[in-house]
Amino acid sequence: MMDSKGRLGMTAREELHRLVDELPEPQLPEVRLFIEDLKADADGEALSAETLAAIEEGLEDIRAGRTLSWDQIKRENGL
Prior knowledge:
- This protein has helices at about 10-20, 30-40, 50-65, 70-75.
- It is mainly α.
- It has one domain (about 10-75).
- The two termini are about 30 Å apart.
- It contains 4 helices and no strands.
- The chain is about 60% helix and about 0% strand.
C-alpha cells in the first residue's frame, strides 16, 4: 500500500505519528485533548472536564452572537 506521498507500507498509526511530529508546539495541547477525548469515547468514558468547558464556552459564544460564517472562515484561512 502506498501513502499520499508515495511511501510504501505506512500504517495509519505511523502516519498519525508523522503528522503529530510535524505539528507546531503550540498546537499540541489541543491535539492531545482531542485524542484523549477520542480514546475516552472509544472506551465508553465521559468527555474530559476541559472539553466540557470548551463546549460550554463555544455555546456561550453562539448565544452572544460571537460567530463567523463559513465564508468568513474560508477567507481568513486563505481557502
